[in-house]
Amino acid sequence: MFTAFLIVLIPPTVVNAVVPKFYQNLALWMARENPSRIYNWFAFCTASVVTEIPISILSALVYWLLWYYPTGLPRDSSTAGYTFFMTMLFFLFQASWGQWICAFAPSFTVISNVLPFFFVMFSLFNGVVRPYSQLDVFWKYWMYYLNPSTYWIGGLMAATLPTIQVQCAPQEAAYFDPPPGQTCSQYAGNFVTQAARGYLLNPEATAECGYCPYRTGVEYMATLNVVPSDKWKYAAIFLAFCISNWALVYFFIWTVRVKGWSFGFGYLFGGLGRGVEVVKRGVKKMVGGSKEKKRGDGGEKESG
Fold this sequence. Notes:
3-stranded antiparallel β-sheet, mainly alpha
């Protein structure tokens, strides 16, 4: 599972490579092609989207080959094919993600300030860094379900973990002693059966009974709110996120760059900028006042 999670560390690198190039092309189109009517906004969006597809597919293939087989994941064609399909979608997603963010942002400074927020939300609220059952209520019922990485990681786990048999190492088990005259199975067998999860490492022992909390990958996925039968639902939802990214590129280029709509972002960022300036002036006054006070105190000491 951890190897599947590692892919969420890639978007900052890819998006930060896509955004400057897209922003430069956008500025060039707005300054040259659009005013001269060489080609319109739809052609620009289509060219920008299509040119990212081949390199995304090639990158996905290289990443999948270097990740999937060396880590010992299931070798059957169904699981391997599904995993490659999801990996390809992920690389398409991150390229188009950077494009629509760049399309709506009024300046490159705004893009630089917005991207870290998206990266943090994308990495944290997917039920892996913090399991779904441990998420705060405020995040559990909306951000978890709005996060694209929730469905990518869920789909990967639903495809690769169901057939895995968990074998706890001795240091990973929980240990307890049964009452005198009883074996581990006699004392804790009903608990394991009712819990429907985990197994006893030494059921016939009379001391230091070891309990492993998971028997199969399915039992582990239940703690992360992942259901194996929903793997294609996860794939469909993540595909919808990819399509929505491409749609947002067209939408924001037409509304923000062609029609000049601001959606209130001008007031928002303008207000934030003014707030920052007020804070800066306050800090300068405080620092300047303290310096003048120190100079005054020094002058009084010299005159004394």
